[in-house]
Amino acid sequence: MIPNPPGTAVVKSAVTLTPELRKKAEATARALVEVRDQVQKVAQVTREELEAVAERYAHAPSTFLAAIVGGVVGSAGGVALTTVAGTALLVTGPLGLAVGAAVAVLAFRGRKYWRLERSTQKLRGALDVLHAEIAGLPPHAPASVRNNLWQQYDRLMAKYNEIAGDSLDD
Hints:
Elements: H1 19-43, H2 47-57, H3 62-85, H4 92-135, H5 143-167
């Protein structure tokens, strides 16, 4: 028998369900009752509990908090999809958590941060090459060659500082 939540009316139906469809309907009804119970538990959270959670996360980096929000939203979406579609999609909750967290962090950081991060990686590679060239110079290499390599180093750093400064202008 499908359970009826308190305060709902019972309507008799003339539709006959196949045993397989009846099992699915009963499983869906049980899942909906479980979701309702969980929502009721969340609604009973006290102000003190909320303040304790807020205090715990007050000093956390914003990127971490964005990941938590995205993860919760993604996980809730995944769990809702699993509830609607049935047990064949059990992976959607954790998958929703991971995707939601990643998307939230990327959205929080924004395109300028991505550009800065990409530029930082490129700069590290270029500086490694320059340092290897400078270190590999023979002791009797002309000063102009050594100075040229250091000038390239300075130009790279100037360009990077320009990009980094632009990314902070939000």
